[in-house]
UniProtKB/TrEMBL annotation:
One Pfam family it belongs to: AAA_23
Any single biological process term in GO: double-strand break repair
Protein name in UniProt: Rad50/SbcC-type AAA domain-containing protein
Residues spanning the membrane: none
CDD domains given in the database record: ABC_ATPase
């Protein structure tokens, strides 16, 4: 799993218009810091989606018009969009990261 990373792109959720974050999959501690309401909890929820299928539905129940979370790593790309509920738009569920797994 050397040098693997996942790019997470968050769009139109809470106060975030667009945020890009690269999560490096390596041993160690990751520190996420920032001002109040800067998107730390939103980012952590989107990271949780990699291992917990229901995290977006549980945490982002509100109305987020055009809400979208994109996960990109190597040759895999998964896009989750919010209309009435969160749904995956780019592939079959059995291909998702947390099922095929990086971990």
């Amino acid at each position: 799993m050397e040098n693997q990373e996942i790019k997470i792109i968050i769009e139109n959720i809470k106060k975030i218009k667009k945020m890009e974050f690269i999560l490096k999959l390596e041993k160690g501690i990751i520190v996420i810091s920032g001002d109040n309401a800067s998107g730390k909890s939103t980012l952590l929820t989107c990271i949780a989606k990699l291992v917990q299928r229901s995290s977006l539905n549980n945490e982002f129940r509100g109305i987020y018009e055009n809400g979208r979370v994109t996960y990109v790593s190597l040759d895999k790309k998964f896009i989750w969009e919010k209309n009435r509920n969160w749904h995956e738009t780019s592939s079959k569920h059995e291909d998702m990261f947390f099922i095929g797994g990086f971990f």
